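Saturday, quiet lab. Running sequence design on the structure tokens for the scaffold JK sent over.
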């Protein structure tokens, strides 16, 4: 979530409290590997949820180019720090997008986790021919989504935040303070923008 930057307005304390404390940013990361073939299909596995640090492994299918893609790991919160630490060690592997190449330490550790997760020998897992690691934990987003904290009323806040100051043309149309779990997705930001237009214009 990008923190609001505003000048010229002194927000009431209750509004400042909501902006700063009602929701918390949740960090996340995804780690993708590409292979010449979908080696995991012989294991009859497509999507796996685990308590290991890779958390989820998902078959992303085979593209028109014949390359098979596996979301080897998808985690959030403290797991993001875990993978960031491994990413900062070793050397990045060669990949098609230099901005997102995972480190050899990430690849090595992920292979060990998948061997345990799938109950197979480490030697069964081939080296990826491409890969990507993506983090949502730094500016400009600071996180992947927002989560409501205890003690805040979703319905009251999501309405009040649209126009936080009576008599001022200040509007906050963001999904971050949307009601229910739909606040986690871009659709809520669009809905809140529609709500501002419908209600005040």
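Result came back. Writing it out in full:
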């Amino acid at each position: 979530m990008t923190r609001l930057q505003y000048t010229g307005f002194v927000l009431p304390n209750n509004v400042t409290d909501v902006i700063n404390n009602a929701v918390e940013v949740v960090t996340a990361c995804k780690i993708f590997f590409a292979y010449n073939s979908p080696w995991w299909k012989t294991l009859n596995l497509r999507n796996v949820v685990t308590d290991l640090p890779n958390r989820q492994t998902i078959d992303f299918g085979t593209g028109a180019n014949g390359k098979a893609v596996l979301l080897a790991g998808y985690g959030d919160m403290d797991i993001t720090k875990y993978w960031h630490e491994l990413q900062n060690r070793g050397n990045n592997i060669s990949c098609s997008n230099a901005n997102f190449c995972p480190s050899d330490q990430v690849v090595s550790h992920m292979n060990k986790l998948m061997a345990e997760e799938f109950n197979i020998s480490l030697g069964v897992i081939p080296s990826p021919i491409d890969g990507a690691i993506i983090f949502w934990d730094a500016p400009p987003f600071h996180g992947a989504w927002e989560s409501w904290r205890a003690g805040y009323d979703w319905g009251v806040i999501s309405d009040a935040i649209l126009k936080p100051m009576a008599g001022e043309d200040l509007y906050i149309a963001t999904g971050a303070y949307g009601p229910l779990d739909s606040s986690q997705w871009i659709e809520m930001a669009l809905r809140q923008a529609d709500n501002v237009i419908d209600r005040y214009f």
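Notes for JK: Residues 26 and 138 are 11 Å apart (CA to CA). The chain has two domains: 13-25+149-200, 28-136. Ask whether to fix the surface positions before the next round.
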